């Protein structure tokens, strides 16, 4: 009876090994599929990040251009030079540009300087 019990135990162990081998094969297939999917997702992620960076850089360029257009208070050095010339007694309007004001205020010049300042 011991031999029969031992043989049954070995056969049962063999069946368990076969079942584990099948499970291991299925697990290997699953891991292979997951690795392929992971690689595909990494590639897609890289592509999307590159595209996002490209779009963000274009958006930043557009925003910077819009900020320059939308910020009238950022008049700059040119305005300062024209205002200084006007204070020194010269016309800065398109009608009499560069000629002497002779101490009188010019409505064209003032209007021009006020447009730049608004």
The end-to-end span amounts to: 109 Å
**What is the rounded Rg?**
41 Å
Helix content bin: over 70%
Report the sheet with the most strands, covering strand number, pairing sense and barrel closure.
none
Number of helices, counting only DSSP H or I runs of 4 residues or more: 3
Kindly report the average pLDDT value.
84
What class do helices, strands and sheet pairing give? mainly alpha
Shape: rod-shaped
Helix-strand pattern: HHH
Give the tally of β-strands: 0
Q: How large a portion of the residues is in β-strands, by DSSP E? A: under 5%
Ranges with pLDDT <50 over ≥5 residues? none
Q: What's the short version?
A:
It comes from Lysinibacillus parviboronicapiens. This protein is an all-alpha fold and 118 residues long.
């Amino acid at each position: 009876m011991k031999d029969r019990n031992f043989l049954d135990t070995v056969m049962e162990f063999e069946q368990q090994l076969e079942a584990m081998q099948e499970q291991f094969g299925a697990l290997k297939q699953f891991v292979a599929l997951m690795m392929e999917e992971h690689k595909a997702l990494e590639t897609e992620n890289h592509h999307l990040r590159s595209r996002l960076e490209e779009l963000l850089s274009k958006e930043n360029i557009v925003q910077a251009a819009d900020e320059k257009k939308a910020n009238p208070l950022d008049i700059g050095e040119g305005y300062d030079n024209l205002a200084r010339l006007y204070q020194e007694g010269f016309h800065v309007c398109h009608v009499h540009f560069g000629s002497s004001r002779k101490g009188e205020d010019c409505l064209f010049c003032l209007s021009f300087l006020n447009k730049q300042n608004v």
